[in-house]
Amino acid sequence: MIRIREILLPKQILLNVKATTREEAITMVSDSLKGDNRIIDWSGFTHCLGECERSGKVNMGLGLTIPHGRADSVISMVMAFGRLAQPIRRGPASIRFVLVIGIPETMDADYLRLVGVLMRAFRDDQLRKALETAETPEDVLATFETGETKLV
Predict the structure, then answer these.
(1) Per-residue pLDDT at 113
(2) Domain span holding position 46
(3) What is the CA radius of gyration of the chain?
(4) CATH code for the domain in which residue 15 is found
(5) pLDDT exceeds cutoff 50 at 152
């Protein structure tokens, strides 16, 4: 079973994203994955994220958006986390967190488990508050680890 700490690296945790649109926020967070050797085709990866965007199934509520893509441009699951300096209003809700995820075609079970853990963590008021106030990437990882062990 893959753990969040194996997928989300500290250098891919951005805690003060200064974006004014959702698209700009996604680009800024996605860019933290550039050069990651788990992505073997950057343009294929970004194209896959764009396809997800067009489907419109990426805003999860709870101040969270999860653009993601399943593609052969990714050889191992990758994730980047961004917390916006200021929430972005989007319809009746606002976005505070961006999670960009790349999934190899063959990792369906791991992907479903990861999304389940993430959603349960964001639904937990205490854990979401910890993510809102995290001061370091390590704080974010520790919060997700608490969510994994608390929710498994």
Answers:
(1) 85
(2) 4-151
(3) 14
(4) 3.40.930.10
(5) no
